[in-house]
Design goal:
By secondary structure, the protein is mainly α. It has one domain. It is 70% helix and 0% strand. It is built from two helices and no strands. The longest helix is centred in the C-terminal third of the chain and has 32 residues. It is elongated and about 55 Å long.
Amino acid sequence: MSPIASRPQPSKLRLSLIMLAVVYPFVTAILYILMPLTEGWPLWERTLLLAPIMVFSIVYFIAPTIQKHFGWFIVRAPRPAIA
């Protein structure tokens, strides 16, 4: 049996639920910060400012943190013992 075949398959549903639980409040907080600063801007300009903040935050901070702390849950493995 190859090593790839024995790897547990991550649950996309579990990952999406954790991502939603973390990203939704983060987006909401960023919007509360940006809305007063961008009052009067067209929607596309606000989105142009928000999108890079969100993408870089998710790719470099949120997703790695979720993987580090909840990777066991996403791959349906037993929770590791806290040392």
